[in-house]
Each structure stands twice: as C-alpha cells, then as structure tokens.
Amino acid sequence: MPSIFTRIVRGEVPCHKVAEDDRFLAFLDINPLREGHTLVIPKVEMDKFFDLPSDVLADIMPFAQIVANKITKAIPCNRIGVSVIGLEVPHAHVHLIPISSMLDMDFNQPKLKLSPEQLASIAERIRKA
Does 37 qualify as catalytic in the annotation? Predict the structure, then answer.
C-alpha cells in the first residue's frame, strides 16, 4: 500500500506545495511545530532515508537548500532547523523548520493548529520568496 506521501505525489491527496521538480516535492506539514514547517520528500517511495539511492540522497539536500532559503525569506526566524526522523510516515523525508531557539525543534511540544486557509497563505508566501 502506498504511503500518504506517495499518494500526495500522485495527486490523490492534496497538499500545500512549496516547491517541486521531477524528483522531489516540498510541502507544508499539516501538523507543524512552527509556521512554515515544510517536508521535503523524494518522489520515489523509500521507507528509510539512508536506503535512498545514492543519487537521490546526494540531490535531496541541494533541493532542500533552495526551499530553506525561500522559507527564511518568507518566515521570520534565526535559521532553518533540519531533522530526519521518519517514524510517523514510512517514506523518507526531511523536516525544514523555521527556528529561533532549540526548543522550536522539540517534536514533543504541541503542534500548531492552522486552518487550510492559513496553510495556503503560508505556502504562497514561501513559493513567492
């Protein structure tokens, strides 16, 4: 059964896209730690990040860098925190989180509750940055 992220790639499940090319997709996390929390995924479904083919692994971070630079321009923060955890969805992904302190990266804290309209507005700001 395809992961929810594969279903997003296929267009079966909607998302708030931030960036996309032929191999990668970046979209807003619907349960974000911070405004602008973005997920970067390879379009190929692979459960574990370090099981990705070498070329995909080599290219995902330069793609994430482009997205991170856009987030920095659109969302006030000191930097973009990066995390690869991959326990909630069995599809390799990178979290890009606008942060101002170490506490902003604590995945145990309550997630933000943002409306679809708020998420759409944030995604638009990032895309335009």
Answer: no
Retrieve residue 18's tokens. 């931030």
CB within 8 Å of 108: residues ≥ 6 apart: none
Is residue 93 within 8 A of residue 60, CB to CB? The reply is no
Considering the domain 4-128 in this protein, what is its CATH number?
3.30.428.10
* pLDDT above 90 (res 23): yes
Q: What are phi and psi of 115, to 5 degrees?
A: -75, 160
For the chain, give every domain's residue range: 4-128
What average pLDDT score do residues 23-50 get? 97
pLDDT in tens, 85-107: 989 999 999 999 999 999 999 99
Catalytic residue among 16, 37, 93, 95: 93
